[in-house]
Design the sequence.
């Protein structure tokens, strides 16, 4: 094929123009992309650095996921209406004033963990109970319910009481769980003010609460008062609420460190059952009714408690008397039946424990069979070959005890298939004591580790994650700045040309 000179010139001109246009488009596209991408990456990098700095300096970090609610006590009243499903704003103040106002205080919170035993933490348990109690109470007519905290917050006792006063509370209910020094005590108890009308109202409610806890199956440790060295209410929440003229009851639902009580709290639904029980106690105390629940306590009669003219001091003395007598000794099987007579005319009887080796070792605490009676009988088994020396310790309502007389009985030389049974029992007792001691030490060590971990949340994994994140930010910013600088250089070169 032959190309004409004219056609060749046209083709060369067209090709040159096409090349120039393509170069212009490419330069413009690269320049625009570099400039815009650089600005984008630079902006995002600065935002990420600010977010990271804010998270680090706040003490939480950007990688921390917190599932709990964080609501201050000051705004709890506003949140209460929101939780209720957008309360009707058309309600008048007069209508609100007609309602009974109660405040529920979930004990502890934040760094204040409360009692800790195994995997259980008091601050978490009290919040579950409180929310269930509030939800149940709000199904009754004529009552307004507030919580001092709805999340994992550490409030002072004064803040809790001041908040109750700010919403004109008629009653303050403080929810707790218990634990004893030697992990021996069990049961539920309530603490009330020792003074005047606060004592009268507190005792009337506590009587209902303890009765319901007993119906649940818990052992009652009673309704108690306690004073500090200045002669004031010992517990700060009660003392401060009394200063605000608000009746207050501190409820210790059960002991976390006792096998007798564990079946009552070892699942969330059981904790929620505590909340519903507490709500029923409030409903009975105020004579409330609920159409949705099908309950009507409008005719319920509270215990009549006269207002005391003097301070209702706690019992500070041991039981007045404790005596034991032999009822029967079976030499064939080692069974010994003992009659116990003990009395405390201030706080009544609570527990008893016994020893068959003269007080060297004692049994676990036993329930007093009938608190309305001072005398009862029980049977124990003594190992073969032992000379029994029976002692009984009788405990009153404040865990003070009186030791009985000692019963020295003939040797129990009955036939047994296990040779050396007494020695084995002694060894088992010693092993149990050592095991308990090791368990206590291990528990303290675990708690120490948990506390240290809470104080130092910046673990190695968290540190490495932050370092990686920072490295990526530096790279992104360097890349973005490179793109921007290149874009500026290209524009300067084009201008020179």
Sequence:
């Amino acid at each position: 094929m032959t190309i004409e000179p004219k056609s060749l010139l046209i083709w060369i001109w067209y090709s040159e123009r096409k090349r120039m246009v393509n170069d212009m488009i490419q330069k413009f596209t690269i320049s625009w992309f570099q400039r815009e991408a650089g600005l984008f990456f630079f902006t995002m990098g600065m935002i990420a650095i600010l977010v990271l700095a804010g998270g680090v300096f706040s003490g939480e970090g950007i990688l921390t996921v917190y599932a709990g609610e964080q609501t201050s006590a000051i705004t709890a009243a506003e949140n209460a209406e929101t939780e209720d499903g957008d309360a009707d704003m058309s309600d008048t103040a007069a209508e609100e004033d007609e309602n009974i106002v109660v405040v529920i205080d979930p004990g502890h919170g934040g760094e204040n963990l409360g009692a800790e035993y195994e995997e259980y933490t008091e601050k978490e348990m009290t919040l579950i109970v409180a929310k269930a109690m509030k939800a149940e109470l709000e199904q009754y007519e004529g009552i307004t319910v507030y919580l001092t905290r709805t999340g994992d917050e550490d409030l002072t006792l004064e803040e809790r009481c001041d908040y109750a006063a700010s919403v004109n509370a008629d009653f303050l209910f403080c929810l707790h769980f218990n634990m004893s020094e030697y992990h021996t005590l069990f049961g539920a108890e309530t603490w009330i003010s020792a003074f005047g009308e606060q004592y009268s109202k507190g005792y009337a409610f506590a009587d209902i609460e303890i009765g319901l806890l007993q119906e649940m199956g818990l052992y009652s440790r009673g309704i108690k008062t306690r004073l500090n060295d200045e002669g004031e209410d010992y517990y700060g929440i009660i003392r401060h609420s009394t200063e605000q003229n608000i009746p207050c009851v501190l409820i210790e639902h059960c002991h976390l460190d006792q096998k007798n009580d564990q079946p009552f709290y070892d699942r969330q639904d059981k904790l929620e059952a505590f909340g519903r029980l507490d709500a029923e106690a409030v409903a009975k105390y105020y004579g409330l009714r609920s159409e949705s629940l099908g309950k009507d306590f409008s005719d319920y009669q509270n215990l009549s408690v006269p207002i005391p003219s003097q301070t209702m001091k706690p019992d500070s003395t041991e039981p007045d008397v404790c005596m034991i007598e032999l009822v029967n000794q079976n030499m064939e099987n080692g069974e010994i039946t003992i009659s116990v007579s003990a009395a405390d005319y201030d706080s009544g009887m609570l527990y008893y424990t016994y020893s068959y080796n003269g007080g060297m070792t004692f049994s676990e605490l036993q329930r007093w069979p009938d608190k309305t009676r001072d005398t009862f009988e029980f049977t124990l088994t003594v190992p073969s070959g032992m000379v029994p020396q029976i002692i009984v310790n009788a405990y009153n309502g404040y865990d003070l005890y009186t030791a009985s007389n000692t019963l020295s009985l003939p040797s129990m030389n009955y036939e047994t298939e296990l040779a050396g049974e007494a020695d084995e029992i002694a060894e088992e007792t010693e092993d149990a004591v050592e095991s308990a001691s090791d368990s206590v030490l291990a528990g303290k060590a675990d708690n120490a580790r948990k506390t240290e971990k809470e104080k130092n949340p910046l673990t190695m994994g968290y540190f490495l994650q932050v370092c990686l994140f920072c490295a990526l930010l530096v790279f992104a910013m360097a890349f973005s700045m490179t793109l921007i600088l290149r874009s500026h250089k290209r524009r300067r070169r084009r201008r020179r040309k």
Remarks:
- The domain at 321-416 is CATH 2.60.40.650 (Immunoglobulin-like).
- The chain is about 45% helix and 20% strand.
- Residues 264 and 270 are 6 Å apart (CA to CA).
